[in-house]
Design brief:
It contains nine helices and no strands. The chain is mostly helical. The protein has a single domain, classed as Alpha Horseshoe (Leucine-rich Repeat Variant), CATH 1.25.10.
Length: 196
């Protein structure tokens, strides 16, 4: 198929999807047919002509009204490495709608995950929040909570094998920095300077 025919086929398909996306039962069918990932791929800068990206944004903006589609869109954004600041069309309205809906989906999910002790759930919600470009404050709070849970898990593992209160032996410490992480190049560099 020639490039011109491919472009025309994509254009016709996008017009059909735009019409279908205005109808709730058809939106469900579009999602179930697996169209979210290919539509999201069109949002990647340079992946398609701008009007195809605009049409894909129109369809996705209608699809993301359901949480099933929102999670599919977030997964597709990750898979296709679509930047969080993706608006590229003339008015950006559909892109703005997508961003607002995805933020509205990701932020409560992140808050809910932070109330649990399930590290994988927090990590998943954190990844989604980063993907949709959520504000820095909730992401930092979630990262701090995850770090806290990771540290508690490490302590629990150490205690489970009887190493809870054992300190790092002096012999295992770096002779230059006296820390238990081994020698660091930055600590040794001043010792080898020849410009003294």
């Amino acid at each position: 198929m020639s490039e011109e025919k491919k472009v025309r086929a994509v254009r016709y398909a996008m017009f059909a999807l735009m019409s279908l996306a205005c109808n709730a039962p058809c939106r469900t069918a579009i999602i179930e047919a697996g169209a979210v990932s290919p539509l999201t791929a069109l949002l990647v800068p340079g992946a398609a002509e701008p009007d195809a990206a605009d049409r894909a944004a129109f369809v996705i903006a209608r699809l993301v009204s359901s949480s099933q589609a929102a999670s599919s869109v977030i997964a597709a954004l990750c898979r296709h490495r679509v930047p969080a600041d993706v608006p590229r069309c003339a008015d950006g309205e559909d892109f703005q709608t997508i961003r607002q809906v995805l933020h509205a989906f990701a932020e409560p999910r992140l808050r809910t995950a932070m109330l649990t002790t399930d590290r994988s759930q927090i990590q998943s919600a954190l990844n989604d929040a980063k993907t949709v470009g959520l504000a820095a404050a909730p992401i930092q709070q979630a990262q701090a909570r995850l770090d806290e849970l990771e540290a508690a898990a490490r302590r629990a593992r150490r205690e489970s094998v009887g190493l809870g209160n054992v300190v790092t032996p002096f012999e295992f410490k770096c002779p230059l920095t006296l820390c238990g992480h081994g020698s660091t190049p930055t600590a040794a560099t001043p010792l080898f300077r020849t410009d003294a």
